[in-house]
Structures are given as C-alpha cells and as structure tokens.
Amino acid sequence: QVQLVESGGGLVQPGGSLRLSCAASESIFSINAMGWYRQAPGKQRELAAGITSGGSTYYADSVKGRFTISRDSAKNTVYLQMSSLKPEDTAVYYCNVKPEPNSPYLEVWGQGTLVTVSS
Fold this sequence. Notes:
Blueprint: E1 4-7, E2 10-12, E3 18-24, E4 32-39, E5 46-51, E6 57-59, E7 67-72, E8 77-82, E9 91-99, E10 108-109, E11 113-117
Parallel strand pairs: 2-11
Antiparallel strand pairs: 1-3, 3-8, 4-5, 4-9, 5-6, 7-8, 9-10, 9-11
C-alpha cells in the first residue's frame, strides 16, 4: 500500500503564496492520477486540482489561474503551488492517489495539511 506524506501547510496572509508537497513512498505517477483535495470547516471535501498519468491537469473554477499542480517523478512528489491566496482557501488539503484503469493500486489519501489564510 503506497503511503502519502503531505507538507507545506501553514498560516499565510491574503494575497500570499504557499507550496504544498506530497511525497509518495513509491513510483506511482505513470499509472495513477494524483489529486489535491481540500475540506473547509463545515463543508464537503472538494477536488481543487488533479493531474493524470499522462500529465493532463484539472482545476476547480475557484482556484483556476491561482493554483498550479505539478509532479517530479524522480522524487515521487506532487506539488500544489498556491498564489493569490484568499481567506476562502482556508482548509485542510489532502493528497490523493486516484487509480486509473488497469492500475493495481487502491485509492489512497494522505493525512492532510492545514492551510490558513488570514491577516
């Protein structure tokens, strides 16, 4: 079972930037999509950004133009670069392995990292 470890969360002022990292315990990007989800207090978890095994990316409308998802296969790490942060971006951010067809992996979640946007 692959393990995911997120890091990079913290407190940032509105308009600031943060980069989240998600390190996988093994090489999985070639056959799995990866996603960054977020869950704000009292709200459902939502997909903020995703990247397929082929490199196609997806962004929720609320983060489009401000967030960038990327990966480094040599480091087995997925990143979420967040800029122009808003208070409504405050949430726990979770990294996710989304198996694609024919992948032998199961869906996996990281432990989450808290991002707080506040002055």
